[in-house]
Amino acid sequence: MKFFNRPNKPEDTDDEQLLKSYRDSRDLTLLGKLYERYMPLVYGVALKYLKNEDASQDAVMAIFEELAQKVHQHDIKQFRGWLYVLSRNHCLMQLRAGKKMETVGLDDFMEFTPVLHPDTEDKEQAMQALERCLEKLTPAQQQSVKLFYLEEKCYKEVADETGYSMNEVKSYIQNGKRNLKICLEKNSEG
Question: d(Cα 152, Cα 180) in Å, to the nearest integer?
Answer without folding.
Answer: 17
